[in-house]
Description:
mainly alpha
Amino acid sequence: MAKKAHFWHFITSLVFIVIIILLTIAFHSKPLSISTFTFILLILAAFRLTHLFVYDTAMDFTRDYFDKSQTGFGKSMSELIHCPWCTSTWMALIILTLYFITTYSMFLILVLALAGASVVIEIVARLIWKKIPN
């Protein structure tokens, strides 16, 4: 069973690498300069999308769908979607690709970035309030 899981982990990693290579070829003539502000927006958008898929109740159906799989591709996807480190890599790829493909994606990126910033503020506020004595 472990060898089968390793196989599918290898396949998903290989797909990721192939996508990166294809996107690098596709964007080779496009200048890839990003302002610091835009970079921060992209970070927040990737953070929010990752949090959505890994932790939020709204995406339980996606996690549940892959959790039913005990072997193969489904099991590999289940492990991927439960790992914030792994999922964030894929989400960053999606967000960055959308950003470079079309300017219309900026609206989605802004929505996700604002939502991501609000989550960060909420986490910081909770940590501060826990330290304040009643």
